[in-house]
Amino acid sequence: MSGRSDELVSEEAGEQPQAPVEGIPPVGTALLTRARGVYRVVGPVGTTVLAFFLGGLVVLVTGDNPLRVYHAIFNGTGLNWLFHFGSYSIRVPFTTHHVWFWWDTGSVAAFNLQQTLLLTTPIVLTGLAVAFAFRVGLFNIGGQGQYFVGAYVAVWIGSSFAHLQPLVHVLLAVVVATLAGAAYGSIPGLLKATTGAHEVITTIMLNWIAFWVGSYLFGQAGPLQISTQSGVPESNVVVAGAKLPVFWGPKELQGLSIGVFVALAMLVVYWVVVRRTTLGFEIRAVGFNPEAARTSGISVTRNYVLAMAIAGGFAGLAGVCDILGWQFQIGPSEIQASQIGFIGLAAALLGRNSAVGVGFASLLFGALINGTSGRQLDSSIFPPELAGNLTIVIQGLVVLFVGLDLAGVLGGLRRRRRST
Amino acid sequence: MAAPVLELHGITKRFPGVLANDDVSFDLRPGEVHALLGENGAGKSTLMNILYGLYRPDAGEIRLRGAPIELGSTRAAIEHGIGMVHQHFMLIPVMTVAENVVLASEPRQAGVFLDYDAAVRRVRELSERYGLLVDPTALVRNISVGQQQRVEIVKALYRGADVLILDEPTAVLTPQEARELFEVVRSLKSRGTSIVFISHKLNEVLEVADRITVLRRGRVVGTIPAAGATEEGLARLMVGRDVLLRVDKLPARPQAPLLRVEGLRVEDDRGLEAVRGVSFEVRAGEIVAIAGVDANGQSELVEAIAGLRTPTAGRVEIDGVDTTRDSPRRKLDAGLGHIPEDRHLRGLVLPFSLAENLSLQEYRHRPVSRFGFLSLRRIAARAERLLREFDVRGGGADTPAGALSGGNQQKVVIAREVDARPKVLVAAQPTRGLDVGAIEFVHRRLVEQRDAGRAVLLVSLELEEVRSLADRILVIYEGRIAGEFGPDATETELGLAMTGGTSGAEAA
């Protein structure tokens, strides 16, 4: 216990030389900014490396060779496809031409990569749901519930209105389901703004509401249960016209749909909104200091609701991409198994709520989950039922380390506010 | 004269891009109060952090009772009997006073258990001996800021400090608490404790110190006895030029009223009526000051005018338009400018850059943004212009506001509010925590705004500021206007009205 207060003091001095030294000129702050910039990259990468290292120790304890296991996982992700060069030709769409191509688009690795990217898509979007809410100062744990709402509406619209034009049908499903996710996301924002109810509590409650509503709707004898097979607790299947087009891989066997481009586009949208629009400006101002924002005429209520709605929209879109992209159907068993909202949370934490960070962190988690899934991992090297646990171990370690760091960052902010 | 208990010789400390201390020498005699005076950024805190073992000097030597010492850590400083009370307290709110004091060197039972009764006894003993009244069994989170400061002092004494460094001790205190602190300082002094008193407030330094050392830009510009020193002389040493402690201004030429407050009633957070039927008006081209002791309804009055708190009754008109229940944004659009009393809480978004802070209201207007998209180029250009115009130092457009000193932060707030060209400018304690140079700047700007035909409402706890700036003075007492005075009212007259005494002046 001894020296506790001294340590506090020296830590403060060490971390932020500008605080005790009154008014350091720009040179000092410029150095500091640059140091923080480097740290923003080194931090998450270091966290990941450390998590993998400790995960490797876990593998070692099970009596396997960590390097061999990681290599097998890597091959399972399909990312090795990027390193397999050869001479192939691919057909140019809408013509009879063939062009030379570096990569073999039909290999096993290519198929693995398609699966990895299919998984990455909703993680990016649920990650953005967390990151966007974080900008307004709210911790959105409700990505899972907002994802469900988007998925339910997408499956309902996608399996109804079969007479619609495919393009119209897809657009209708995407837009309405996204708006449904947004509406669901705005509820905790509204509660926070009007009653002060903490968003962590309300979003968790809303997750369970979405969970049980879905289990009822698509479950045995539920109102939206599949109409052709009365004994199967599943929804109707999305009709062909409402499916997102597959642009890579087999259409019937979970090829990669254009959902991945939707996710990439949303990363760009996220960055533009946060950094370049008046809306993002207001949201960041409220996130950093609601009182100052209010004093300067920025409505805190409006921004809480709006930011949570947009966050919910991102998560809802994740549900849309899964349903219209490859799942086509949802039922209580899928609802129970889904963790995507929480994986998105981990991706947002690891990616530090930046567009690029969320993108890479999502790819990491998507690859890890796919690479350790029973189907992809070579079972002669590591038992797949254990490999899935390894994913959870690594994921947990990442969240733990990032969480620790988060505490440090927040502490630093608070101290800076008190100084000067 | 006794040999100095502590000497600093030729202390030099460099930080990237700045020479914080340049060949600074300083000595402290036993049982004296030696004030270290300087503007924000002059290097006072750096010097004391060196003395407390937080920084290692690049050059120079520290001698304690004649013997050179090495201070590599705060622990070493404490072992040498040096104690420091920081501006921001290092207390654990959920622990009791006694627990906080003995933390890190607890009296023990059987070698492992905290002897809480002994701790309470020791704390009571110390606080009685030095007249530092605190309840050892109270939780720190339940006691006032002034009492928390006393706990810090007791903590230093408990650790055996005979040299005590007080870093800007009055910055967080009310005037009443500050007076109590001065009593404590005198009592410590009479018992032989030597005290370094860091401050940028001239009057309190003159009141409490025996000798004064003035720092400017990291250098000692002089050490003088407090007896015989004047505020003007000290201000000149501090800033390096003559400072106008009294504002130079022409008589006001008031025009039509721009702000009219009628029968305003406002409740505070606890639902008690804090403003009880206040009426006044501020005309274009005049400064009206609301004077009063803290917590007599000033904050609630300003918040109601700014739209941050809804009044229960009454009217607020800006340029003839009823804005009583308007949102802060509509108030701004109606022509209100507001310099909030707490710049960290309300005035600035500290993690935002200066450019973003300067555009905190303008961001939604053309050409700073178009169709909802920000023009970063215009935001930066605007910032460059305002930073230059208002002489903001310590950073550029990209620097986070939190990295600036208090005076420069306040300049940023003022720049933003003034540049919006409001009809009515409400300035709530605009010079709180600022040093003389910055205060002079703020005062000059407020007078400029008056002369430019704006209605300026100044809310201040500093009588001197009120008297030198205002064209009319309204004294507020327990939520009511207790009297109206001209700028030539004496401190006694105002003081009487401020404490609820009946004044002979024309009560409003």
How is this structure best summarized?
Chain A has 420 residues and is mainly α. Chain A is 68% helix and 3% strand. In chain A, the strands form 2 sheets. Chain A has a two-stranded antiparallel ribbon. In chain A, strands 3-4 form a two-stranded antiparallel ribbon.
Overview of the structural elements:
The complex is a heterodimer of chains A (420) and B (508). In chain A, 68% of the residues lie in helices and 3% in strands. Chain A contains 15 helices and 4 strands. Chain A has helices at residues 4-15, 26-61, 66-77, 108-135, 143-159, 166-195, 199-218, 259-276, 278-288, 290-295, 300-327, 332-337, 340-350, 355-371, 384-418; strands spanning 88-91, 98-101, 246-248, 256-257. In chain A, strands 1-2 form a two-stranded antiparallel ribbon. In chain A, strand 1 (88-91) and strand 2 (98-101) form a beta hairpin. Chain A starts with a helix and ends with a helix. Chain B has 508 residues and is α/β, with parallel strands linked by helices. Helix content of chain B is 32%, strand content 27%. In chain B, the strands form 6 sheets. In chain B, strands 6-9-10-3-11-12 form a 6-stranded mixed sheet, with helices on both faces. Chain B has a 6-stranded mixed sheet with strand order 18-21-22-15-23-24, sandwiched between helices. Chain B has a 4-stranded antiparallel sheet with strand order 2-1-4-5, with helices on one face. Chains A and B meet through helix 1, helix 2, helix 9, helix 10 and helix 15 of A and helix 1, helix 2, helix 10, helix 11 and strand 20 of B.
